[in-house]
Amino acid sequence: MKLLKGIMKNETVFCVSFVLAVLSSFAVHPDEGYLAYPDYRTLALLFCLMIIVAGFQSLGVFAMLGHALLKRAGSIRALSAIMVLLCFFCSMVITNDVTLITFVPFTMMVFRMTGQTKRIVKLVVLETIAANLGSMATPIGNPQNLYLYSISGIHAGEFALAVLPYAGLSLILLMAVILIERDEPLMEVAVKEKKNTEVKKLMRALLPYLLLLVLCLMVVFRVLPYVPVLICVAVVILAVNRRLYLSVDYFLLLTFLCFFIFIGNIKRIPEISSLLVSVVEGRELLTGILASQVISNVPAAILLSGFTGNFAELLTGVNLGGLGTLIASLASLISFKFFAKEYPDQKGSFMKVFTVWNVLFLLVLMAEAFLIGRLAG
User: Fold this and answer.
1) What pLDDT tens digit does each residue of the chain (377 aa) get?
2) CA–CA separation, 190 vs 233, rounded Å?
3) CB neighbours of 18 closer than 8 A, spacing ≥ 6?
């Protein structure tokens, strides 16, 4: 019972998806058609990318990158810019949630060392926004991008048009917010150097993961089939570091699977399917944003994708939809949990700052989307 309560508390989205899948199975009884529901390519890629990124993390690559850049910061403003840029650009490769897991604790530690604890709330919020918006720029930056790019068949140019204008403006806005902050000299912070021998050893250990990442990217861009790459990743990880299998977010994979079942069943109920199509079609941007505020953007992408063919517009909607409420992007909950653990008496302050900045960014980017839509029309 205690284990069940823990799952319900920590994996709420999975629990909801499981309930929806079970309930829908009463309307459409399990049969051979169920086997066609999942997008196995997306599931395989998610598994591979999660385990490869866990390999990078196990070697401390991202923390080392942060330390190296930290040495070049001469002021609080420069340090803040470095941390936000790290979150923005790293999320394009290692996903938004892994980026926040890596850099939010690192940020809080560094700013405590510099004595600038009052700035932590706003900076963690900006890092969260940076990770959520930076991750939209690549097909592997977040699960919803990987899924929509995988099932839609849209080419790289269409993908870029759907996300890069917003990622570009996001970067400008983030830097503008940093630059208007009051600047102060940065007191010296001790940073451990890595010896040359350690760097060489790290590069040797890193090589298998880099090669596997290249293989996965070739699957993402439809150069290689996913099955041989999945087998290759499974075998190499087993040989290099089998403990990484414990680092995979299996609940995320199960959440995808449950939503696949739910959507597949709903599409086989004509009355409900036609209703959802009429609601979503032509309103992909708005429904993507609104649905994300309630169920978060990954489930929103999976759910809405079953009832529209305009994947580019939906891609924009669910990515912008990661802004707004705390649950709009599940990655945002990671930042909140880390902050609340260190500063339990400042949860309300975090929520206030988080909501204000998220809504502000969302309104600006929605205005950009409206303008682009008018110009395109």
Assistant:
1) 777 777 777 777 788 889 989 999 999 999 999 998 888 988 999 899 889 988 988 888 777 776 776 677 678 888 889 899 999 999 998 889 888 988 888 888 888 777 767 889 999 999 999 999 999 999 999 999 999 998 888 888 899 999 999 999 999 999 999 998 887 776 655 444 455 547 778 888 889 999 999 999 899 888 899 999 999 999 999 999 999 999 888 988 898 899 889 888 988 888 888 888 888 888 999 999 999 998 889 888 988 988 888 999 999 999 999 999 998 998 898 898 889 888 888 888 999 999 999 999 999 999 999 999 888 76
2) 38
3) 254, 258
Best CA proximity match to 48, nearest among 195, 175, 209: 209
d(CA 318, CA 276): 17
Coil vs helix vs strand at 327:
coil
Q: What is the pTM of this model?
A: 0.83
Please give the distance of CA 21 from its chain centroid, rounded to a whole number: 24
Which residues, 6 or more positions from 57, have their beta carbon under 8 angstroms from its beta carbon? 98, 101, 102, 247
